Amino acid sequence: MTLSALLGAVDPPQLLPAREQMAFTLGFHIILVPFGVAFTFMMLICQYRGLRRGDQQALLLAQRWSKVAAVLFAVGAVSGTVLTFELGLLWPGLMGKYGSAFGFPFAIEGLFFFLEAIFMAIYIYGWKRLPPWPHFFTGVVVTLSGVGGTASVIAANSWMNQPAGIVVKNGRVVDVIPSKVFFNGAFWWEMVHMLLAAYIVAGFMVAGVYAWDLLKGRRDHYHRLGFLVPFTVAAIAMPLQFLVGDTIARQVFDREPAKFAAIEMVPTTGTHVPEILGGVYIDGEVRYGIPLPGVASILAGFRPSTPIKGLDAIPPDVRPDDAVVSVVHLAFDVMVGTASLLLLLALWFAWLWWRRREVPTNPWFLRSAAVAGLVSLLSLESGWVVTEVGRQPWTVVGLLLTRDAVATQGNLWPLFATVLAIYFCVGAGALFVLRTMRRRWAEEGTDAVAVPYGPGPAPAMNGRTSGADDA
């Protein structure tokens, strides 16, 4: 039993605003992560095509995308810096007790961040100033740095789910093994899951912009390529994500039984546990859900007789409350439901491409593609809710309760309001800049714009309209 339970502790008043602020800032920042990790990769695909095939439109697309990436990187730097300060201001119990372990992945992330910032500046400045292939490889460093930074943050997050690599005596960390902290038991699957999610979100969101253009009749090579590259990346990642997600679910079943019980909304331990679609958890009972008999047990252990530990097996002082269970379960349903829709869209795209070998022109497909970015974003956010809320009431599972990690002095609501105002201004400013850039590029067109590696305007594409040219 924890010290808080022995003393009859209650949640401090600072807990609610601290959790709300952390949830908001994480939810905002996670939107930008895919663009630092995956959007730059798609930019490099266009640049590589342009260099290898002499495709000036692909080079122009890569150059314009690099400017978008720079804007979003700047916004991400602001929101990420705020998150860093929040860890110390809002959660002194976490940093004070386990900062020597938890802070190690963030130190690595800082190195990747500076590396990414330096090479992002070189890459943006290097258009027309560096030889083509050396310039391309500066972009490769940008992409790899983004992957490394994301992996570092995932290492810190996964360590909170499955802490490892520390020796604790008398409530204090006396030894840290950095490699085991970083490569903890949950790291690899969580990292792959997040990276695939980044490619899916960035791919569908960027493709959605060009799907809208295609619906408006802008079907030149530039717009077809702008749709085809990111959508193909997202479509390839979707089935892989389902395989990884299915494996992670069984990892959670084996190593985080309380989270799994909340995800599946399992009140009591037993076998032949049904999968509940929808529903809420009230007074220890499942209400308003649609049960699929035995499916949860089959998903956990491939047979209906697989026993699943219920919430009744969790000690009362560390058992997630009814609201947490309902939120985690519904978020999981949303994540799986939206991902299933995106998988169907990816299969539809594969079918259309297999039949005609060209960018689909079916209006209903393009309408679906245009909204797929928002659907993927909803899937990403709900997945983070499962990960973060599903850990409650723990901040570090088995070691530190959230109520013991939060700051216990001062009124945090004014700080939360200040952060909201800052993020609103930053977000609105970013949208304004991006819309201004898009409007200017639409006015410039594509054929009369100076190409990145040439002295004159891009040559006309000589009527290239076949889908095979975009492959």
From TrEMBL:
Keyword Acyltransferase: no
Keywords recorded for this protein, A-Z: Cell membrane, Electron transport, Heme, Iron, Membrane, Metal-binding, Transmembrane, Transmembrane helix, Transport
Membrane topology: Multi-pass membrane protein
First-listed, main subcellular location of the protein, grouped into a coarse class: membrane
Protein name: Cytochrome ubiquinol oxidase subunit I
Keyword Phosphoprotein in annotation: no
UniProt family annotation: Belongs to the cytochrome ubiquinol oxidase subunit 1 family.
Protein origin, superkingdom: Bacteria
Annotated source species: Streptomyces lannensis
